[in-house]
Design a protein that fits this description.
Elements lengths: L5 H21 L21 E3 L5 E3 L5 H10 L10 E9 L3 E3 L11 H13 L2 E5 H7 L14 E5 L10 H4 L5 E6 L12 E5 L1 E2 L3 E2 L1 H10 L4 E6 L1 H9 L5 E7 L7 E2 L17 E6 L2 E7 L10 H6 L14
Parallel strand pairs: 3-11, 3-12, 5-6, 5-11, 6-7, 7-8
Antiparallel strand pairs: 1-2, 4-13, 9-10, 12-15, 14-15
The structure holds NADP nicotinamide-adenine-dinucleotide phosphate.
NADP nicotinamide-adenine-dinucleotide phosphate binds next to strand 3, strand 4, strand 5, helix 4 and strand 10.
């Protein structure tokens, strides 16, 4: 592979930036782009066109950088009212999302962090567990990309979080604190709203009730950004339509686990998934479609058939 010149890098960045604006518009999230009153229609720049079913598809002959971006995000730019729930974790090669003490800044590199901000821009609501708020004090906004910040949803069944956390105070986006019905605080923390959820003994907060309650507020595209406990519970509840795992070339050693699922005795019973794989700098993003309509799973032979091609771009779809 030849040396990439500065001019080629600039052209790739420019086409990716333009493709991103088209994707935002296709997702109906373009209104906050760059101060424009009316978002440009997704077709305007020639990046996307309508397919026979009225959905969006990529135009042929896009520059590679735009192509990679469009193929990753286009499945999330749907017009359907059903929406989606995507879980994401950034983990080390040894399966940890943070050190034992909770340090997770940063497991994955800048390209994956940019991806997180893009996912926030595409979703209606971003969901995190109380452990993430305690350790990271995140803002969960779209500071790095054009696009609106989503509603921020925090799962805090016992109402244990302090009101000082940034997302309760900064008013950068609407924020909802979800507690168990029996633990409902009398006053919401900072500017947050309260959402009381039913519980069950095994899994804690009823996540199906959460998804229904958010849908009733028009929030149907949900991004579950962590941590491991929260994403695992969404996965175990069968509520994820996609799972995204970014693997960084990092060994943490006895850190906080990523996915933690019930035990499987026989490998034949394990869930084997058909991935799309995207390169993000030094990290690899596994994008796994879990929706039953697409079959989600495959067998080992099919998996082996997908060869990992030589990755030339910043972000590249392989399968
Ligand atoms: N690398 C990454 O992708 C990434 C992303 C986010 C966070 N992190 C790191 O991961 C660590 C936090 O992850 P974590 O797995 O320990 O915690 P977490 O998933 O952020 O939060 C777990 C807590 O959230 C509450 N919760 C979540 N789902 C619930 C449900 N269905 N029912 C009831 N309660 C629920 C519970 O609170 P209670 O404990 O009060 O019961 C639970 O203990 C931090 O170190 C953070 O820095 C890494």
């Amino acid at each position: 592979m030849g040396v990439v010149t500065q001019a080629e890098q600039d052209a790739a960045a420019e086409s990716a930036a333009a493709a991103w604006l088209a994707l935002l518009a296709a997702a109906g999230r373009g209104t906050a782009v760059a101060g424009t009153a009316e978002p440009a229609p997704p077709e305007a720049a020639g990046w996307l066109c309508r397919d026979a079913d009225g959905g969006w598809q990529m135009r042929p002959s896009l520059p590679q950088a735009a192509r990679d971006l469009v193929s990753l995000y286009l499945p999330l730019c749907t017009d359907d009212a059903d929406g989606w729930v995507v879980g994401h974790l950034g983990q080390s090669l040894d399966g940890c999302i943070a050190t034992h003490g909770g340090d997770s800044c940063f497991v994955t590199g800048p390209d994956n962090i940019l991806h997180l901000h893009r996912m926030r821009a595409l979703c209606h609501a971003v969901i995190v567990g109380a452990g993430t708020v305690v350790n990271d004090d995140p803002r969960l906004t779209t500071r790095l990309v054009p696009g609106p910040s989503p509603v921020r949803v925090v799962l805090d069944p016992r109402g244990r979080l302090a009101t000082e956390h940034r997302l309760f105070q900064d008013e950068a986006a609407p924020t909802l604190l979800c507690t168990a019905e029996h633990a409902q605080p009398t006053t919401p923390p900072g500017a947050a709203g309260l959402l009381a959820l039913p519980t069950d003994d095994d899994t804690g907060l009823r996540l199906d009730a959460l998804v229904t309650a958010l849908a009733a507020r028009g929030l149907t595209r949900l991004f579950v950004e962590g941590g491991g406990v929260t994403v695992s519970r969404f996965l175990a509840a069968g509520l994820l339509s996609r799972l995204q795992i970014a693997v960084a070339p990092l060994l943490i050693g006895q850190g906080r686990p990523g996915l933690s699922l019930p035990r499987t005795e026989r490998l034949a019973d394990a869930l084997r998934l058909a991935p799309r794989i995207f390169r993000m700098g030094a990290d690899m993003l596994y994008d796994l479609d879990l929706s039953p309509a697409d079959g989600g799973c495959t067998d080992g032979a099919e998996m082996a058939a997908g060869a990992l091609a030589d990755a030339g771009g910043v972000l590249m779809r392989v399968l």
